[in-house]
Amino acid sequence: MINKIAIIGGGNLGAAIAKGLVKSGKPFKGEVIVTRRRVHLIKSLEQEGISVGQDNLKAVENADVVILAVKPYQLEDIISEIQPALSDEALLISLAAGVDSQRISEMASGRKSIFRVMPNTAISIGESMTCVSSYEATEEQDAVIRELFEPTGTVQFIPEELMASATVLAACGIAFALRFIRAATQGGVEIGFGSDLALKIASQTVKGAAELIIRGEAHPEAEIDKVTTPRGITISGLNEMEHQGFSSALIKGLITSFEKIENGSKKR
After folding, report:
1. What is the torsional sign of CA 83, 86, 88, 90?
2. 3-state SS assignment for residue 157
3. Is 11 annotated as a binding residue?
4. Would you say the C-alpha torsion 96, 101, 106, 109 has a positive or negative sign?
5. Per residue in 129-169, pLDDT tens?
6. What span is annotated as the signal peptide, if there is one (predicted)?
7. Mean pLDDT score of the chain, rounded to an integer?
């Protein structure tokens, strides 16, 4: 049973995870504590039943799960700092992009039972796509991590070599999807809607499109075919977007983000 979760790093993602775990009807009874040097920036989490503080070492004491929600360049110093208080049984989770489990194990004096987890910020409302890879963990430990994150969205275990790709497609992907919604909203204003109504329509339309794929397990093109009629307005709009490089720009954006992760890991 998980009695205490320590989240080291109360930035946007660390705070979102804390909120998601608490709101999900967490599969454990105990404390969620989040640390950040500028603790005043996360004081609002206390209103949701989350403890906050500055002392990483104290936060990790007696923790069953420790989530490292820090930048890759901070990882080694943080692990060195918390190691004296880190129990042998604690599950160590890293959110740091581009730092593989073997390297994390080396930082932690050969520690096993390491997980790399990449959720996205929709975890705060229980709608994350969370990708997980495990390193020298047991099936029981894998099950604990799955049980922990499943109430916050969808969990998918993947090979570790795909974690950089998962970071781009799932975590960065939130921003890419939101940028589409913003652009659609701006277009809606151009064709006559007020901005609030345009945003509502665009957002629900994207949600509906995603649900068609998730629930129906259909290919996007099959659903597109249902609304593109000969000489119709939909195909005209789609073709113009493609002429302007819509799909190409999105794919190039994904590749650019991926290459940045890959280049960063090589520098280390």
Report:
1. negative
2. strand
3. yes
4. positive
5. 999 999 999 999 999 999 889 888 999 999 999 999 999 99
6. none
7. 91
266 is in an annotated binding site: no
Q: Which amino acid is present at 143? A: A
Query: Which amino acid appears at position 18 of this protein?
Result: A
The DSSP H or E segment spanning 8 is: strand 4-8
At 187, list the tokens: 């277009």
- Give me the residue label for tokens 């960065």: 172
Q: Is the pLDDT of residue 119 over 70?
A: yes
Residue 19 annotated as binding site: no
Q: Quick one: which of 117, 141, 143, 139 has its CA closest to 128?
A: 117
Backbone angles phi, psi at 152, to 5 degrees: -100, 10
Is 12 annotated in a binding site? The answer is yes
DSSP state of 138: -
C-alpha 261: how far from chain center: 15
Tokens at residue 53, please?
């503080």
8 is in an annotated binding site: yes
Closest CA relative to residue 123, chosen from 210, 44, 24: 24
71 is in an annotated binding site: yes
Confidence category of residue 268, pLDDT binned at 50, 70, 90: very low
Amino acid at 151: P
The full set of domains in the chain, from first to last, is: 4-158 (3.40.50.720), 167-267 (1.10.3730.10)
**Tens digits of per-residue pLDDT, 42-73?**
999 999 889 999 999 999 999 999 999 999 99
Instruction: Consult the annotation and say whether 69 binds a ligand.
Output: yes
- Any binding-site annotation on 144? no
